[in-house]
Structure formats: structure tokens, C-alpha cells
Write a structure and sequence with these properties.
There is one protein chain. The protein is of the alpha/beta class and about 220 residues long. It folds into 2 domains: about 5-165, Rossmann fold, CATH 3.40.50; about 170-224. Helix content is about 40%, strand content about 25%. The chain has 8 helices and 7 strands. It has helices at about 10-15, 35-40, 55-70, 100-110, 125-135, 170-175, 180-205, 210-224, and strands spanning about 25-30, 45-55, 75-80, 95-100, 120-125, 140-150, 150-160. A 7-stranded mixed sheet has the order 3-2-1-4-5-7-6, sandwiched between helices. The longest helix has 23 residues, at about 180-205. The mean pLDDT is about 95. It binds S-adenosylmethionine. S-adenosylmethionine binds near residues 53, 55 and 98. S-adenosylmethionine binds near residues 13, 29, 53, 54 and 82. GO terms for molecular function: tRNA (adenine(22)-N1)-methyltransferase activity. Pfam families: Methyltransf_18. This is SAM-dependent methyltransferase.
Length: about 220
């Protein structure tokens, strides 16, 4: 019996799925249970999907999900690091979600066709480093913040434009965001408190960086 995956997509993954080009071909890197490609194929948003994972266990789980969803024939699975074994032909969107920013940079650095596709990136850590890398590599992007309970997730939708640019400390730490968005404002408020606390701790320890973090907290305050 075919079953719908839709209910299994968390708000975070649903937000990533919503960014995928309609009628496109998605490549989900670090797919784990393949919930994202399964949903995109079942809903008809994608005609074909590629899914990779560096570990055999998750890839087996991916195969099970795609089989149970009745869409295995439309999918290709690769056991590899990032996009190493993937041929770019036809792929419109690459999703890399639920991984550290440094792993995402590593995967993209090793992909010679990264400039040809729409990138949907959902880093869990080192987000400023990822933003810096994208800016230096000539990518332009927009960001959204998704909240699940007390957790915030940042999703970047990036394309290569060829324009290399520098980022302000605010753009590096909070991102290129829509400050009118409710979830962005909640996220920025939470970050502002963290930066303010950090500035106080550094000041007490007599560290010079205290001023940078205090300035960042102030810059966020002015945006809110
Ligand atoms: C936390 S899960 C995220 C799963 C899914 N993408 C999501 O966002 O819910 C991370 C997955 O990425 C895989 N992974 C980690 N590093 C990888 C790499 N360099 N290339 C491919 N897959 C990787 C792990 O094996 C794991 O299945």
C-alpha cells in the first residue's frame, strides 16, 4: 500500500521542500530517511530525485522509505561523500540540510558544478562561516527562519551570480534576512540576548572582543 510521507516532514524539512523548483529534479545530500525526496516525488513536485548519504545505514533507510512510498523507480541513490558520485545532468536543486556549516562547505567545495544549480542549505552550526564562503564564492542568497518549538532553523536559498561581496558583521551573524518576518525577529531577539551576555562575560574577563559582540547586539537592537 502506498502511503503519504507529507505528515512526516517536519516544518524545517517542509520549508526546504517548498523551495525546490516545481517540476524540477532534486538532489538531497545527506538524505538519511529520504523523507524530503519521497515527499517531493509523491506530491509530483519533482519528476526525478537523487539522494546521497555517506553512511550505508541511512541509505538503506532511504531505500525503504522510497519503496514504501512507491517512488523508488524515480530515484537514484548513491553511497558517497556529498555529491562525489552524482552527475549534474538535469538536476535543478541541491538540498543539503541538517548538517554543520563546515560539512556543507566541504561538500560544495568538492562539487565542480555547484554554480549551475539552485542550492537549498539548512546548516545546524557554523552558519556565519557558510555565509562568508558563499559571499566569497560569488553566490547571492535569501534566508528564512523556521521555528520548531524553541529551536530556530535557518534556510538559505542560494544561486551563483558571480558577484563577490563582503558581509557586515550583522549579515554574517544574522544573515540576509527579511526583518519584517515574525520568525526572523524572534530569532534575532534570541541571538541579541546571547551576544549581549557573551559581551558581558568577555568584558568581565578583560577581553577586547567584548566590544565587537556588544556592537553586534546593539546593531540587532536597532533593527528590532
Ligand atoms: C542529521 S541527518 C540529516 C538528515 C536530513 N537531511 C534532514 O535534514 O533531516 C545528517 C545525514 O547526513 C549524512 N552525512 C553526513 N555527512 C555527509 C557527507 N559528507 N555526505 C553525505 N552525507 C553525509 C549522515 O550520514 C546523516 O544521514
Amino acid at each position: 500500500m502506498k502511503w503519504r510521507i507529507r505528515t512526516m516532514l517536519t516544518k524545517r524539512l517542509a520549508a526546504c521542500a517548498a523551495q525546490v523548483t516545481p517540476a524540477g529534479v532534486v538532489c538531497d545530500v545527506g538524505t538519511d530517511h529520504a523523507y524530503l525526496p519521497a515527499e517531493l516525488l509523491q506530491s509530483g513536485r519533482c519528476t526525478r530525485a537523487v539522494a546521497t548519504d555517506i553512511h550505508a545505514g541511512p541509505l538503506e533507510a532511504a531505500r525503504r522509505t522510497l519503496t514504501e512510498a512507491g517512488v523508488l523507480e524515480q530515484a537514484e541513490l548513491f553511497l558517497c561523500d556529498g555529491l562525489e558520485q552524482v552527475q549534474p545532468a538535469g538536476i535543478t536543486d541541491v538540498v543539503i540540510a541538517g548538517m554543520g556549516g563546515e560539512t556543507i562547505v566541504h561538500i560544495l567545495e568538492n562539487c565542480p558544478w555547484r554554480r549551475q544549480v539552485h542550492l537549498i542549505l539548512q546548516p545546524m552550526t557554523k552558519i556565519p562561516d557558510l555565509r562568508l564562503w558563499l559571499a566569497q564564492q560569488g553566490f547571492g542568497w535569501s534566508e528564512q527562519v523556521v521555528q520548531e518549538g524553541k529551536k530556530f532553523y535557518v534556510i538559505l536559498s542560494a544561486r551563483h551570480t558571480g558577484t563577490v561581496r563582503t558581509l557586515s558583521p550583522l549579515e554574517q551573524e544574522i544573515g540576509c534576512v527579511d526583518w519584517q518576518s515574525e520568525s526572523v525577529r524572534r530569532y534575532a531577539g534570541w541571538k541579541q540576548q546571547r551576544f549581549q551576555k557573551l559581551a558581558q562575560q568577555l568584558e568581565q574577563a578583560g577581553r577586547a572582543e567584548a566590544a565587537d559582540w556588544a556592537a553586534l547586539a546593539q546593531a540587532i537592537q536597532e533593527k528590532l
